[in-house]
Design a protein that fits this description.
globular; about 0% strand; Four Helix Bundle (Hemerythrin (Met), subunit A); mainly alpha; single chain; about 240 residues
């Protein structure tokens, strides 16, 4: 058995819980990340190196986005680089679990890269629209609004996880089967769907329509999740 095959087998046994993730992350990003993680393990890359590779792929995709006017080839290149960067973001944690080389520093680096990605992707959409697409000034507010929603939702989810770790809940935790309906409802908030949407950036009117719909869906999901997280934290006691 090759090291790649062994790594794939072990990773299949050590996957993160499926609860709380969309169908894209469950059925596309994590399996793709598993393949990349096995390849990175074979190449003896550290989890932090995989995290940095994810950042490089995302930065490359955004650089292509702002480097010139919209076109079909540019849209496909941006989409592929962002999807690859997201898959590597999944791979770094899988490499960490496989090698046992996880650390607080590695987790911190992963979150810092994720936070930078949330800000940069919408900032680059704003720059690309401003430089190359003749749109009404009001439409330039879309990336700014999306940026706020994405950052607040990311920070809210991260903080609720940290606070739950520090404050044990009363009683035994219950384990429920992941809901497929919830996984479908979370689909618009999955970064992978945003990455895929750039495939139509070569046709700005279509992209703006898809982007605006994703913004509205993310805003609705953020409101519901923030309310849910607040209620959960309010029920905890130090």
């Amino acid at each position: 058995m090759t090291s790649f095959t062994w790594a794939l087998t072990e990773l299949a046994r050590a996957q993160k819980p499926r609860r709380g993730v969309s169908v894209y992350s469950r059925f596309i990003n994590r399996p793709l990340g598993r393949l990349l993680a096995a390849a990175c393990f074979t190449l003896r890359l550290s989890p932090n190196a995989v995290t940095l590779a994810s950042a490089v792929m995302t930065a490359a995709g955004l650089a292509v986005l702002v480097a010139g006017p919209p076109s079909a080839w540019r849209a496909v290149a941006v989409m592929l680089l962002l999807v690859l960067g997201f898959a590597l973001d999944s791979a770094d944690g899988q490499v960490s679990r496989l090698t046992g080389r996880g650390s607080p520093a590695g987790e911190w680096l992963d979150h810092v890269v994720d936070a930078g990605k949330m800000v940069a992707v919408h900032g680059c959409v704003l720059v690309a629209l401003y430089l190359y697409v003749p749109v009404a000034p009001g439409l330039l507010a879309l990336p700014l609004a999306f940026q706020v929603v994405a950052v607040v939702m990311f920070a809210g989810g991260l903080l609720v996880d940290l606070l739950k770790r520090s404050i044990p809940a009363d009683g035994a935790a219950t384990t429920r089967e992941p809901s497929m309906l919830r996984a479908l409802a979370l689909l618009p908030a999955d970064y992978g769907i945003l990455a895929l949407s750039f495939v139509v950036f070569g046709w700005p009117p279509a992209f703006l329509m898809v982007y605006a719909l994703l913004l509205v869906a993310n805003l609705a999901i953020a409101v519901l999740l923030l309310a849910k997280w607040f209620r959960e934290l309010r029920s905890l006691r130090r």
